[in-house]
Design goal:
Elements (H helix, E strand, L loop, with lengths): L1 H30 L19 H6 L1
Length: 57
């Protein structure tokens, strides 16, 4: 009886692992279509940078 419980537990974990991996692959496929060039990130903490100060440094 205990052996059956262990076997069913292992099978349940394998099934959940398969589902999680398929969801990750699906999300990865969705996010891979967005290019990094379309995203804008503030590299200086969001503060505006003066071009004069940037060129003088």
């Amino acid at each position: 009886m205990v052996a059956l419980l262990v076997i069913f537990t292992i099978l349940a974990f394998l099934a959940v692992d398969g589902i999680v991996l398929s969801v990750r692959k699906r999300r990865e496929g969705v996010t891979s279509h967005s290019s990094a060039g379309e995203l804008v990130f503030a590299q200086d903490g969001g503060k505006p940078v003066d071009e004069d100060k940037k060129n003088s440094e």
